[in-house]
UniProtKB/TrEMBL annotation:
Keywords: Signal. Residues 1-25 form the signal peptide. Gene3D superfamilies: 3.10.450.10. It comes from Naegleria gruberi. This is Cysteine protease inhibitor. The keyword Metal-binding does not apply. The keyword Signal applies. SUPFAM superfamilies: Cystatin/monellin (SSF54403).
């Protein structure tokens, strides 16, 4: 009797752990999707990317996705549609770092462009 009940409890515990693993969408320490970014945040990234990438991508037409990771500040991966200097539409992914407020030195931009890739 004891062996059957302990086996049943063990199976129930394994099933619960499997359900938790399959439904967990956020990996601790990893990037998470910003499902409904505010208009203010979209405008902030559009303006920032437009100013930093103007030579290669004169127009940023749309922010498609924003992912964020909390580090010593926030690291963002922003996927956007852009028009390159040849007039071709490209999908780009930019990595942008926003340091903690106390870590920003005088004259330093609040946002820092770390990397840009064409997808």
């Amino acid at each position: 009797m004891f062996q059957r009940s302990s086996t049943a409890i063990l199976l129930l515990l394994i099933a619960c752990l499997m359900m938790i693993g399959f439904t967990s969408a956020v990996i601790p320490g990893g990037f998470s999707h910003n499902k409904k970014p505010s208009a203010k945040r979209i405008a902030k990234f559009t303006s920032f990317l437009s100013s930093k990438l103007a030579a290669k991508y004169p127009t940023i037409t749309q922010i498609i996705d924003i992912q964020q990771q909390v580090v010593a500040g926030v690291m963002y991966k922003v996927t956007a549609l852009a028009i390159d200097s040849n007039g071709q539409e490209k999908t780009i992914k930019a990595t942008i770092f926003e340091p903690l407020p106390h870590a920003i030195q005088a004259g330093q931009s609040k946002l820092q462009l770390k990397d840009v890739k064409e997808l």
